[in-house]
Amino acid sequence: MRRGPGNPLGALEIGMAAAEVMEMQTETFKDPADLPVDEFSSDDDSSPGQARRFACDHPGCNAAFSKPCRLEWHIRVHDGDRPYKCDFSGCAASYTRSYHLTRHRAKAHSPKADGPPSSQHQCKVKGCGKFLSSKQLLDRHVVLYHEGRPFGCTSCSKRFKKHQHLKTHEFEHNNVFPYVCPVEHCGKGFFRKQKLDRHVRTHEGYACTVEGCLERFDKWSLLRKHNAAAHRKAHVCAFCKKDFPKLSLLQDHLPTHQNERECTNCPDCQAMLVNTAKAIKQHSSRCPAKKKLEIVCDFPGCGKILTKAGNLARHIKSHKK
């Protein structure tokens, strides 16, 4: 799912992640020397352009924060100061922040912690009713699964952002395609309207748009071939009047009329070539000297002779099957 500045879920998840990391650090590292100092070098809750003016002066720690309260929480981790202690009988848990203590009490010592889930964190959306262990998880659940999903399924509780997604989902309940070909005696179904439109054009055909031409084809590729053959635009050379189907071919041809051209010889057959990369490449694929090249397969019991290295590579794969 794409997260950005305008997505409330992104900010919510960042805040939750920061809290989880802070609690993990305070509970796990009893000795400040064991702290991975880089864990607190970023201030996740601050805005991207906000300066981090409050730096930690603990040796070896480069963490900096945009608010003094966050620096104070961070220093407690180095000092081992955990002023917020659980007063529940038999519980020795302690925390650097009051929020962590409050969350601990709600999770570990709630009167209904061992019984059925509390309705305080139950999703109120009609048809859902899911229970979650904290308000943060409930808020995340609402944003992720309900807000911004106006299209609800009438057969189950699922909701969708787009009507097309809903129509595709309904196929699971009724086995009816959301988009069906309207042409008589066809009835072919599709999940996407774009594919239906493409299919309908196969019934209507692709008409030639050249004036006076009444040809019609089932496929776009056939229409293109027709245009290239019947309505080809000729590109004529001004020197020799030779015509070419493509402008690029005419441009390749024009240098042949120059009085002076730089030439080179093929190293294999000594043929004289125009010294251009395209001419050398074209000749390389047709060079008679290379065509006489013989490559023998060295696979035991084979000995087949091939004329191209690429053919040899494909041939060797046939032995490995």
Automatic annotation (TrEMBL):
Protein keywords: Metal-binding, Repeat, Zinc, Zinc-finger
GO cellular component, one term: nucleus
Top-rank taxon, per record: Eukaryota
Gene3D superfamilies: Classic Zinc Finger
Signal peptide range: none
Biased composition (Acidic residues): 36-46
Stretch list, region Disordered: 26-51
InterPro entries in UniProt: TFIIIA_Zfn-C2H2, Znf_C2H2_sf, Znf_C2H2_type
Domain C2H2-type, residue spans: 54-83, 84-114, 121-151, 151-178, 179-205, 235-262, 295-321
GO molecular function, a single term: zinc ion binding
Coiled-coil regions listed in the entry: none
Name this protein carries in UniProt: Transcription factor IIIA
